Amino acid sequence: MLAKFRTIPLELGFVLIIGAFLYLFLSEGQLPTTLPNLLYSPQLLHVKTLFFSILLEAIPFVLIGVLIGVFFSALLQTFVSDETVRKWTPRHPMIAIPFATMLGFIFPICECAIVPIVRRLIHKGMPVYVGMIFLLAGPIVNPVVMAATYTAFPTEPQMVLYRTLFAIIVAAVVGIILFFTQKTPPLKLGSEYEITHEQQHLHKQTKKLSSTFTHAVDEFFDMGKFLIFGALISAIIQVYVARDVLISFADTPLYANLTMMGLGFIFSLCSEADAFIAASFSNTFSKGSLLAFMVFGPMIDLKNTLLLLSVFRIGFVAKFICLVTLSVLLLTLFYPL
């Protein structure tokens, strides 16, 4: 309880900052005269237009993703037993790897909720490498994200294909490496008690429909603040950062991919919304670097890293992040267009 209250100043500060920017955009220039004249510039209107266009396109997909994710999370906890997980998870890696990569299509869960779910699955008996493949591929290889990516790139459907294909390849490569190298349990000590307590709590919650919807609303606003942050920073970069500066990064494939991967890590967007942010950079950055953003971000971002560190041992997390980073970078550097 004390830890929860410690986060209130941070949350309040974030809300105040976002509220100030929203007021700035919605005020149509009717601002106090003591503010700098820069706030009245035409660029501000352009920032506002970009910001709201990204936001309005992405929100429906975020809402759909939240509702589906909460539903399947509750379904998993309430009706799927340990024996069922062990029975249905293939033991041979040649079968388990494609099985894990396609789980996201059957259970479309975004990266905001997938770490606790993978932790539960590993505890229920799923092999570590299978769970981590699902963690990487699940947020991308699902119909909601595919639909969102197609909406963001309506004239370039190949972006949907390559994003899905790259996610499958990266997840499979990392999974194979973990199969051969990870011989010890990566979960932190004490996680078994935490999972059991969480299962009991969620089982009580799922008895009430209102609790499920409450959880969905919390998830929506939790992801929404990252979407607002990402859309805002993207719009500001597009308008206020000189195009020559962006081009200096975008001209070299290596720098362009690393830049977009870094933005994906910092923005911490949900996978249902990041394609719209990527599309806003399509006039400056190459398709390969945009794919790096859309593949790496849902797999490894700031909030996901903190979740991983709270569940898995630090050495395992460091190895996992390095494998994902190198795999995404190398793969997207060879994008054909």
Q: What is the SS-derived class?
A: mainly alpha
Radius of gyration: 21 Å
Biggest sheet descriptor: none
Number of strands: 0
What portion of the residues fall into strands of 2 or more residues? under 5%
End-to-end distance: 51 Å
As residue ranges, the low-confidence spans are 1-8, 31-35, 191-206
Overall geometric form: globular
Question: What can you see in these coordinates?
Answer:
With 337 residues, this protein is mostly helical. Helices cover 77% and strands 0% of the residues. The model is unreliable at 1-8, 31-35 and 191-206 (pLDDT under 50).
Condensed summary:
The chain is mainly alpha-helical. The protein has helices at 2-6, 8-26, 42-79, 82-88, 93-106, 111-124, 128-137, 143-152, 158-181, 191-205, 209-240, 243-250, 253-267, 274-280, 287-299, 302-311, 314-333.
Give me some keywords for this one.
mainly alpha; 17 helices; 0% strand; disordered N terminus
Element layout with pairings:
Elements: H1 2-6, H2 8-26, H3 42-79, H4 82-88, H5 93-106, H6 111-124, H7 128-137, H8 143-152, H9 158-181, H10 191-205, H11 209-240, H12 243-250, H13 253-267, H14 274-280, H15 287-299, H16 302-311, H17 314-333
Helix pairs in contact: 3-8, 3-11, 3-14, 5-7, 5-9, 6-7, 6-16, 7-9, 8-14, 9-15, 9-17, 13-15, 14-15, 15-17
